[in-house]
Amino acid sequence: MWNYVLADYRRILKRTPRIIYVAAYEAILLLIMFIAWRKGGAGFDGESLMGSIDLWFIAMGGLLLGFGTLINVYADDFKAKTMQVAIGIGIKRLQVVISKVVQAAMLIITDVLFTAILIVVFSVISGAALGAPQIGRLVIECLMILISNVCWISIVSILVFKLQGMIMPMVVYVLLSFGILGLLAGIVTGIGPAFMEKIPLREIMPDNVLSTFETSLIDGGFAFFAFIGIVIYIVLGVYITYLLFRKQELDL
Q1: DSSP string spanning 40-81?
Q2: Which of 97, 110, 95, 104 is closest to 72 using CA atoms?
Q3: Mean pLDDT score of the chain
Q4: What is the dihedral angle through the alpha carbons of 239, 172, 177, 105, rounded to the nearest 10 degrees?
Q5: Separation of alpha carbons 127 and 44, rounded Å
Q6: What is the pLDDT of residue 193?
Q7: Cα–Cα distance measured from residue 153 to residue 148, given in angstroms and rounded to the nearest whole number
Q8: Contact 111/103 with Cβ under 8 angstroms?
Q9: Three-class DSSP category at 202
């Protein structure tokens, strides 16, 4: 299984479309930081640097990097048919499902590490030294990009493996990233019967659980139950995907 994971990871990592996509993201990030540096002048410090990337990296980084990962892990597989090859050589379907989520996690780790190094190097070049609070925030945001995307991708993989296509899963992934589940839960609670108000439906949605966990990290704590909730959603996504995929016919 691990040979399959690593071989596919290396193959995806070297794909030209992926390299172009990530390079474009990093180039825009660099441009944003450079403009902020030039505008900030002598007053440009670590806090100013983190503030300049608040939208592109902290708010949108998870969505943009995760979206690219989703496409590269699954869409390319349908063309290369590595799933069929893996199953043909004896890798179990559950292992294939898990492998795809692991590959996605590895690619996201690669991207966020590269991005974090880029930010730190730029801080040194610009003289905007990052203090302990900024470094801590950077680490937390990188960690949350990883955790949130593993969660969303494991859930979206249910559609990917069932439909064997990417259009609907990509749309659902974007909606999930923008908190559609929490919004729908709030609407259902608001317009439903009176007893629905007593059910913490919105609070147990994955987007709210992720937000709770991130807030706890920023405040210096660790929301244990929120973390367990995230793990449960990831496991459920993988398991439901397997249940649907185990008898799925694959095109050869």
Answers
A1: HGGG--HHHHHHHTIIIIIITHHHHHHHHHHIIIIIHHHHHT
A2: 104
A3: 89
A4: 40
A5: 8
A6: 65
A7: 8
A8: no
A9: coil
Q: Are 37 and 131 in contact (CB under 8 A)?
A: no
Q: How confident is the model at residue 194 (pLDDT cuts 50, 70, 90)?
A: low
| Spatial distance between the Cα atoms of 73 and 66, rounded to a whole number of angstroms | 10
Residue 80: the pLDDT is 60
Q: Please state, in angstroms and rounded to a whole number, the distance separating the CA atoms of residues 84 and 127.
A: 51
Exposed, middle or buried: residue 23 (CB in 10 Å: 0-12, 13-18, 19+)?
exposed
pLDDT value at residue 91: 78
- Note whether 83 and 96 are within 8 A (CB): yes
Q: Which of 140, 138, 127 is nearest to 44 (CA)?
A: 127
3-state secondary structure of 166: coil
| Percent of the chain clearing pLDDT 90 (strictly above) | 66
Residues 6+ positions from 16 with CB-CB distance below 8 Å:
none
The tokens describing 10, both together, are 């290396």
* Dist CA 171 CA 73 (whole Å): 16
- pLDDT at position 34 is 96
CA–CA gap between residue 133 and residue 36 (Å, rounded): 20
| Range name among 75-79, 144-148, 248-252 with the lowest pLDDT average | 248-252
| Nearest-angstrom CA–CA distance, 238 and 16 | 29
- Tokens standing for residue 103: 């590959």
154-169 pLDDT, tens digit each: 999 999 988 888 899 9
Q: Which residues of 170-208 are buried (b: 16+ CB within 10 A; e: fewer)?
A: bebbbebbebebbeebeeebeeeeeeeeeeebbeebbbb
Most confident of 78-87, 179-188, 213-222: 213-222
The contacts of residue 242 (CB under 8 Å, 6+ apart) are 93, 94, 97
